[in-house]
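stage 2 :: seqdesign
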């Protein structure tokens, strides 16, 4: 039936039971700000930061990996009561120093950034000569058991144990083949002791529970990018020219990717130290205009009104 005025008069409000009482709202407590913003998983953070009391304030170090729209950021951090402290950090924006100027966000770039962060940290704490990491990248997980403890390095020195850090992924989904694990593998090959397994690396099959290390190695050296470059060049050359324009500007081809990444790894190991900071001098020539007084603003408005009135009078004549 059509909705008429008579029907409208007969409609009454439905009785709604108040589920939440005044006592509920009085006791309501808002969540932490970074939880409300969806930036911090506090359940995860608590387990990464809390240390056993019998270890006497020795910090738990975290290997933090974050991806932005343009770069990969890796950091080694530990927490104090007034906030986190960053021991060292590396960004894929530094990779042009080592010969990689394109593709700064893919799996291979994440590996290079993790490697750079690890070598930089070990150089800072004086362990770079003791723990050189894995020079021959093969995609396998390296581990050594000493007593009841498993260390994820080739050999454990008698005097100095390896630097242990725990992977901090933030709110990112840890799916198999995720780029976060590229950074993890780079840091592990760089000499850091990061507990992990092959179950989330590219090449692991959950059904058969088998791990193809060669497939992972191919990802580390950008094989998947090169394969797509070749496919796109054959199928749609126009799209290839647009999508890989930055690669073509640098004369990078699909066949030369593995050699390129090998050279980047070698240069990172030679000199992982951060570049010197450039002196910043702000431009002081710009000066803000002085604010007009109320009398000046009123005079400007009146001048505009007079001009408009004069214009209308001319049109009438």
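stage 2 :: out
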């Amino acid at each position: 039936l059509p909705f008429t005025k008579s029907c409208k008069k007969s409609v009454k409000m439905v009785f709604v039971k108040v589920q939440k009482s005044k006592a509920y709202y009085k006791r309501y407590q808002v969540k932490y700000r970074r939880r409300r913003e969806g930036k911090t998983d506090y359940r995860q953070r608590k387990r990464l930061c809390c240390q056993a009391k019998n270890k006497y304030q020795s910090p738990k170090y975290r290997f933090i990996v974050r991806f932005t729209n343009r770069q990969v950021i890796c950091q080694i951090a530990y927490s104090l009561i007034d906030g986190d402290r960053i021991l060292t950090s590396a960004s894929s924006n530094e990779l042009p120093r080592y010969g990689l100027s394109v593709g700064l966000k893919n799996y291979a770039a994440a590996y290079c950034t993790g490697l750079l962060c690890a070598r930089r940290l070990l150089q800072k704490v004086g362990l770079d000569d003791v723990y050189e990491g894995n020079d021959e990248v093969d995609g396998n997980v390296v581990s050594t058991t000493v007593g009841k403890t498993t260390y994820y390095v080739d050999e454990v020195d008698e005097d100095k144990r390896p630097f242990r850090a725990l992977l901090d992924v933030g709110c990112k989904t840890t799916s198999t083949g995720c780029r976060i694990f590229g950074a993890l593998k780079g840091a592990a090959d760089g000499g850091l002791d990061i507990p992990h397994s092959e179950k989330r690396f590219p090449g692991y099959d959950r059904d058969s529970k088998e791990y193809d290390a060669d497939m992972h190695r191919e990802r580390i050296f950008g094989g998947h990018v090169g394969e797509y470059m070749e496919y796109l060049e054959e199928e749609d050359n126009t799209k290839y020219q647009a999508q890989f324009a930055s690669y073509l500007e640098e004369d990078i081809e699909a066949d030369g990717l593995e050699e390129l990444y090998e050279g980047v790894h070698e240069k990172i190991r030679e000199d992982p130290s951060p570049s010197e900071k450039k002196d910043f001098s702000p431009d002081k020539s710009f000066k803000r205009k002085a604010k007009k007084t109320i009398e000046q603003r009123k005079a400007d408005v009146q001048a505009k009104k007079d001009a408009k009135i004069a214009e209308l009078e001319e049109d009438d004549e």
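stage 3 :: structure notes
- The first helix runs from residue 5 to 10.
- The chain has a mean pLDDT of 92.
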